[in-house]
Amino acid sequence: MRQPNSSSMRDGFATFYAGAVDSPWIAYFGGDYTVNDNVAVSLYTSRLKDAWNQYYFGSAT
Known about the structure:
49% strand
């Protein structure tokens, strides 16, 4: 991860915090599961090395 020097979306992932973020990788994992016709759940996680960890859990009825 590096501060962008162009507006092209081909330059990779960019993020801004209090300063420049220099991270070698980003990872995502998760999925949705339908329990039955009335209940579904979602669980996702993501991590930007040395910057953040995020988790998401959702349910629908």
